From TrEMBL:
Entry keyword set: Signal
Record's keyword annotation contains Signal: yes
Biological processes, Gene Ontology terms: transmembrane transport
Source superkingdom: Bacteria
This protein's name: ABC transporter substrate-binding protein
Pfam families xref list: DctP (PF03480)
Organism: Brevibacterium luteolum
UniProt keyword Signal present: yes
Record-linked InterPro entries: DctP_fam, TRAP_DctP_sf
Length: 319
């Protein structure tokens, strides 16, 4: 029996496109594995759930670097601005760094007894607000914006905003009460939390970062499985990742249309405005790497590996 838990509702993209198919594939493979699924934070919060996997209370769970910046700081490389804008490219590129032998697996996951199975990446983060239109970086100055944490804090601060780290599930109340002026979110994540009900404006095409979430299995659990069971789990995870990234890609345009129909105005940039944002966001990547280098961690090596993987996978994905 595998115990799988996360903090997402069963209708969320990560569950609908990723977890549901993984469970079905594993249980139908005939290798004597049943999966108990505990969604919606039943067994722990988004911040705590990976620790429960490490302790053995859960077998499989998400380990989002944005929520675990103290434990998986280098894995927040995916959240940096201006990198992959395609979910499948980003997920495959990130997974290469997370597999045994990959730099992130060896430096952050293996020491914690965690083995990544599949990855979901939601790219295309925009700045969305309750009352202020954003046409240029000057419009961001002074705004408090919900952040997923980690590298996203730096992305927001780079253009003059004040990041407020909180789980996505807390964003609606924070917006409604005026605790924050807006959010840094991808359109595809807006609808599950009904944030279009309290938002009025969104940038269009900013690409201010991404959110990545590896689903991991405890190494203790992995070691207890037979070779046949491991093979089934690995294959099921690969198929889950493919379904998930394709699902995310299909949800983004649908979410934008839903937001527009609910009254959210999308604001595009002209070349000069786009260049202003890029001039502030591009250095964030280098500064992120240099900060880790100075602390004795391989920041530049991780960034270079991720950028190289993105470039290669984008090239392979181009017809």
């Amino acid at each position: 029996m595998l115990k799988l838990a996360d903090s997402y509702a069963p209708t969320h993209m990560f569950a609908e496109y990723g977890v549901a198919g993984f469970i079905e594939d594993v249980q139908s493979a005939g290798v004597d594995i049943e999966v108990e699924y505990y969604p919606s934070g039943q067994l722990g919060s988004a911040r705590d759930i990976a620790s429960l996997t490490r302790s053995g209370a859960i077998d499989v769970s998400p380990a989002a670097p944005a929520y675990l910046s103290d434990q998986l700081p280098l894995s927040s490389v995916t959240d940096l601005p201006g990198l992959a804008d395609d979910s499948c490219v980003a997920a495959q590129s990130f997974l290469e760094l997370l597999e045994p032998g990959g730099i992130l697996f060896e430096t952050e996951y293996a020491p914690r007894g965690l083995r990544p199975l599949w990855v979901g990446v939601i790219p295309g983060y925009e700045f969305m607000t309750v009352s202020r239109q954003i046409h240029a970086p000057s419009d961001v100055r002074g705004l408090t914006l919900r952040s997923s944490g980690g590298a996203m804090d730096s992305n927001i601060a780079a253009v003059g905003g004040a990041p407020v780290s909180m789980p996505a599930a807390d964003a609606y109340e924070a917006l409604a009460r005026g605790t924050v002026d807006g959010v840094s979110f991808p359109p595809a994540s807006i609808i599950p939390y009904k944030l279009q009900e309290v938002l009025k404006y969104s940038t269009d095409g900013l690409n201010a970062g991404a959110f990545a979430i590896p689903y991991v299995i405890s190494e203790v659990t992995w070691d207890s499985l037979s070779d046949e069971q491991r093979s089934v789990i690995s294959q099921s995870a690969n198929e889950a990742m493919t379904r998930l990234c394709n699902g995310i890609g299909s949800e983004q345009p649908k979410a934008i249309e839903t937001m527009k129909s609910d009254g959210v105005e999308f604001i595009s940039f002209d070349e000069e405005q786009a260049a202003e944002f890029e001039a502030l966001l591009e250095p964030v990547r280098t500064k992120w790497a240099e900060r880790f280098d100075a602390a004795g961690k391989p920041g530049s090596e991780v960034l270079a590996a991720y950028e190289e993987a993105i470039q290669r996978n984008e090239s392979e994905a181009t017809p």
